[in-house]
Design goal:
The complex is a heterodimer of chains A (244) and B (283).
Chain A lengths: L2 H4 L3 E3 L3 H15 L6 E9 H6 L5 H9 L12 H8 L2 E7 L7 E9 L4 E10 L2 E7 L2 E5 L5 E7 L4 H11 L4 E8 L5 E8 L5 H8 L4 E7 L4 H5 L19
Parallel strand pairs in A: 2-3
Antiparallel strand pairs in A: 2-4, 4-5, 5-6, 6-7, 8-10, 8-11, 9-10
Chain B lengths: L4 H6 L4 H13 L3 H24 L12 H7 L7 H18 L3 E3 L9 H13 L7 H15 L6 H4 L1 H19 L4 H13 L17 H20 L8 H14 L16 H11 L2
Helix pairs in contact in B: 2-7, 3-5, 3-7, 4-5, 5-6, 5-11, 6-9, 6-11, 7-9, 9-10, 9-11, 10-11, 10-12
Classes of the chains: A alpha+beta (244), B mainly alpha (283).
Chain lengths: 244, 283
């Protein structure tokens, strides 16, 4: 956690974990689709379910899905903003098992039918951790650029991805991978010191075993301090990647 | 790797310079960029204090909203302007927070008033500039990082001790450095603030960040100033600082779910607390 995460974020109240963290979960989730989400189904777990309403958790989550930052003055009015933007949403209580009490499952779909599901936890002070994407175990916080790839498990894929990242002069900070079964679908989650170049991303997306590639840009404030990262306000997320 | 409290304590004084250099080496950010961002945070904090002191508009539930202004406008019956200022500033920020206003989480929103209350309160009392607060604020952040090595900083995970204990420890170290304290004194101030917060539960009425959160920030901003005063007189925490954090983390794990932000125990379950919950559920 950076110094600017400890004294920060600058945010709309009233809760860093229930409001700012929820907003950031939305900010990450929307980047997993190629285009803006049109429907969202959000399951709130434990403390998110129990005390979320009084903390603006629902508005904050929707605000994040719309691309609003935690300090955006429109956050309290996110439901009206969603209606204007054509985003339909639905909340329900859920039990996600042995996860942090401030956790949520977010299921999104885009106008073209693309669909994604993630589970993320808000661990305190506005810091989040994404723990599942489409059922695969992952681990990333959005503090740094994160490359997610879903592919068919085969000898050397991870090594080739790592080589490509290195050839693009980008360092890997952390890496998690999981697969359904040998030779089945697999997901590789790599936290990077910078984003991959569009050329490298395009090349990676073209590999025959690659099913899905996403570059999640940083959502935390430390990214702002170097003038990079951050999300894109109201606009459509700038995404590289393809789906098979 | 995030430094421990012990490492910060062993650093050459002022501790903040070492914390900044160490963190920038890890993050790749420049020291100038972090300091500039921190200065922006201080300006945001000051703005939230100003708005909070000027407003008596009720919060979402109507339980708070007029306390900071009420104290600020009241006569100084104790002839203790520092005390009154620190308390009023702290509540100003948390009342803004409870109105869904713009604040700086430090480290959380529920504990956002403690650091501005203590640090800006002391600075205004002594006529110091906001520029002089930048490096103490860096140290506050470094202390928070060191605490977060061992525990999640949230009421849901560790009770209020994790939030207000952390903010008070961070504020105590920052005030100590502002007043010329050594690295050792700063960390001992943090440790003393923390060890006297262990066990505090998170039992917010109705689940809202209002009661007791708003007044609690006033109390713990003063708590932080007390810790700084002790440390600047070379008093020390008998239990080493990192061991105090370990103890707090252990108490957090032992704390029942009912007392960790779920509003199922303590003040939230009083007849008056339950009446607020019932009234708000109707809305």
């Amino acid at each position: 956690m950076s110094l600017l995460d400890m004294i920060g974020p600058v945010m709309i109240g009233p809760s860093s974990s229930h409001t700012a963290g929820a907003c950031r979960i939305g900010l990450v989730a929307r980047q997993l689709l190629r285009s803006a989400p049109v429907t969202a189904r959000i399951g709130l777990h434990a403390s998110f379910a129990k005390t979320g309403k009084g903390h603006g958790t629902l508005q904050a989550m929707v605000a994040g899905l719309l691309g609003f930052q935690p300090d955006d003055a429109r956050l309290p009015a996110a439901f009206a903003e969603a209606a204007a933007a054509g985003l339909q949403f639905e909340f329900h209580d859920t039990d996600l098992g042995d996860v942090h009490p401030n956790s949520a499952q977010v299921e999104l779909s885009a106008a073209d039918g693309e669909h994604v599901t993630l589970i993320a936890s808000s661990t305190g002070g506005g810091v989040i951790e994404v723990i599942r994407v489409d059922g695969f175990r992952v681990s990333f916080s959005g503090a740094s650029a994160t490359l997610l790839t879903r592919y068919t498990d085969a000898l050397g894929v991870i090594a080739r991805v790592a080589s490509l990242v290195a050839a693009d002069h980008v360092n890997i900070a952390a890496l998690v991978c999981s697969r359904e079964k040998r030779g089945g679908a697999a997901m590789l989650c790599t936290e990077l010191d910078q984003s991959l170049s569009p050329a490298a991303l395009g090349f990676l997306s073209g590999w025959p075993e690659m099913d899905w590639v996403r570059m999640v840009r940083p959502i935390m404030d430390a990214a702002d301090a170097i003038g990079g990262g951050g999300t894109d306000g109201m606009g459509v997320p700038v995404l590289a990647g393809t789906t098979a | 790797m995030t430094p421990t409290l012990h490492e910060i304590m062993q650093a050459p004084s002022p501790a903040s310079a070492w914390v900044l250099a160490h963190d920038c080496a890890e993050s790749g950010l420049s020291e100038g960029a972090v300091k500039a961002a921190m200065q922006g945070r201080i300006a945001e904090m000051r703005d939230s204090v100003r708005r909070g002191l000027a407003s008596s508009a009720p919060s979402i539930t109507g339980m708070v909203g007029w306390n900071a202004k009420g104290l600020h406008d009241a006569p100084d019956v104790l002839n203790a302007p520092l005390l009154k200022r620190v308390q009023a500033y702290a509540m100003a920020v948390n009342e803004e927070n409870a109105r869904m206003g713009r604040i700086v989480a430090a480290p959380t929103a529920g504990s956002a008033g403690t650091i501005p209350g203590a640090l800006i309160g002391v600075a205004d009392h002594l006529g110091l500039s906001d520029e002089q607060l930048v490096m103490p604020m860096v140290l506050a952040a470094g202390i928070g990082q060191a605490i977060s090595r061992q525990m999640f900083i949230s009421g849901a995970a560790g009770g209020c001790q994790a939030e207000i204990g952390s903010s008070a420890a961070m504020a105590a170290a920052a005030v100590t450095e502002l007043l010329g304290g050594s690295s050792r004194a700063c960390v001992h101030a943090a440790s003393m603030a923390l060890m006297n917060t262990i066990g505090l539960v998170c039992d917010p009425v109705g689940g809202f960040v209002e009661v007791p959160c708003v007044s609690r920030n006033a109390f713990f901003a003063v708590h932080a100033v007390s810790a700084a005063q002790l440390a600047l007189a070379n008093l020390e925490s008998f239990i080493p600082p990192d061991e105090v954090v370990t103890a707090m983390a252990q108490v957090g794990r032992m704390m029942p779910l009912e007392l960790r932000e779920t509003a199922e125990g303590g003040l939230a379950q009083t007849p008056t607390g339950l009446a607020v919950t019932a009234r708000m559920e109707g809305k």
